[in-house]
Every structure is written in C-alpha cells, then in structure tokens.
Write a structure and sequence with these properties.
260 residues, Lipocalin, 2 domains, ten-stranded antiparallel β-sheet, 1 helix, 20 strands
C-alpha cells in the first residue's frame, strides 16, 4: 500500500504538470546552438573489414554496413550512401536524399596511421549549407582504416536554430526549420513520429517531464533504441542543455543552446 505522503506528492506533481501554462514553460522559445560550450568528442567508432570490399561501422550497439564500390546503397538512417577509396589513405562518402546530394564527406588517415580526419559539407532542406570537421585518435590495435577510433576534435555548424512551441494542453512541439523537421510530443509515455524530408522512416520519440526544467527523452528507429537524452533549461532560462547517451557508449555528448 502506498503511503499517504507518496500519494500526496504524486497528486501535487500531477497538478503541477497539468497547470504549467504554455507562456510560462521554460522550454518554449527559439534556441541557437553554441558550439564553443558543447562537447561532441569522446565518442568511439569501430570500423571493420568484412571482406569483399565490405565495411562495417559501429557506434556502441548501433551499426551499419556498406560495400565500398562507390554505388548508391540504401542507408539505415534514410536515403542512400556511397563509399569508396579515392586516394592513398583517403575515402569519400556521399549521402543522398531522394537522389539529391545531402552531404559529401572525405576521411583521411595520417601517415603514421594514428589519426583519422573527416571533413564534410552539406545542404539542408531549406537550401542553407553546413560544414563539419572531426578528428579521431586510434584506440587499441588496428591497421589502416580499420580499428577503434575516439573523437578528439569536433567543429560543426550542422545544428541550426531549434524552435519549441506549445502543443495542446500538456505537450510541446519541437522543430528545426532549416531541416523542415517537426515533432509534436505529449508527455504520456507514448512514442510520437519525427517528421521531415531527411528523417529516416520509423523514427519516433517518447518523453516524460521530470520537473519544470527537465525532460527525459528516448529516440527509436523502428524498434531499436538510438539514444537517451536529458534536456535541461538553466535557472535563468537562457540556456538549454542536451545530455545525449548512446547505447553501448560510455561518454555522453553535450549540446548547448542559447535562447534567442
């Protein structure tokens, strides 16, 4: 039997959630990515040679494979991907959505085989462009491209402005106009679809409200959990921080947004 104290606390919590006015919701507003305050490093990637010019890329418990012959192949996260060797210790990948190039990335291995550098350029659905640069160090044994890599440097402007608006009486609508992406969410434990031209089919999310300034969030691709997130708004309401944990990864990524 639940104690009277627990019942009272539960009732007060439910009353607070139901009475949180949209105008007072600290999440509502426009948010811009702060690259300098964010931490995108520390994530590990494993690249394996499966034979027959076939590569496997793994991030924690998630993975995808591709044949490195430069042909467009169905990509797990939407659209198609091609991958091929383009020079000594250099590889190029091209991601397409509906046959149009979304991004092109070049990966280069240092002469000593210890550092992997990737530079990518892309175009968002609204026509704006973005770039990203990453470096990773070899962790453990491996030869050439193959082995375990841990990101050490990351510079990206691929995280555009994020808009959060009220949705119904007890939900929020999250959108990224540059990607024409939108997700309407209620905090009832159900999974809601993520929609947009670059969103992989079967992408859904579920969230619960911990308190006025904290949301816990889970993303799925079909039946596979892709990540767990915690979203927190600072006490002064000026900063929104996302702590993202990927299954099988020890280090979380931290994305920081500033209110506009």
């Amino acid at each position: 039997m639940m104690s009277s104290r627990f019942v009272l606390r539960l009732c007060l919590t439910l009353a607070w959630v139901g009475s949180l006015a949209a105008a007072d919701d600290p999440f509502v507003g426009k948010w811009k990515f702060n690259s300098a305050q964010s931490k995108l490093t520390g994530v590990r990637e494993v690249i394996q040679d499966l034979g027959g010019n076939k590569y496997k890329f793994s991030f924690g418990t998630d993975s995808w494979t591709i044949v490195g012959d430069g042909t467009d192949q169905p990509f797990k996260y939407g659209g198609t991907m091609s991958w091929k060797e383009t020079g000594p210790n250099a590889w190029t990948s091209v991601h397409k959505i509906d046959g149009k190039i979304e991004s092109t990335a070049t990966s280069t291995l240092s002469e000593d085989g210890k550092v992997l550098t990737q530079t990518a350029t892309g175009t968002r659905p609204d026509g704006s462009s973005y770039t990203s640069d990453f470096k990773a160090k070899r962790v453990g044994p491996g030869k050439g491209l193959f082995g375990t890599w841990e990101s050490t440097e990351a510079k990206a402007d691929s995280y555009p402005e994020w808009d959060i608006a009220p949705y119904g009486a007890d939900g929020l609508s999250f959108s990224t106009p540059a990607y024409k992406e939108k997700q309407d969410m209620k905090f009832d434990g159900k999974y809601y679809p993520d929609e947009g031209p670059n969103v992989a089919a079967g992408s859904t999310s579920s969230a619960k409200r911990v308190n006025a300034r904290t949301i816990e969030w889970t993303d799925k691709l079909k039946d596979q959990v892709m990540d767990h997130q915690q979203l927190k708004v600072s006490e002064d309401g000026k900063t929104l921080t996302l702590f993202i944990r990927y299954p099988g990864e020890k280090m979380p990524q931290t994305l920081v947004y500033e209110r506009q």
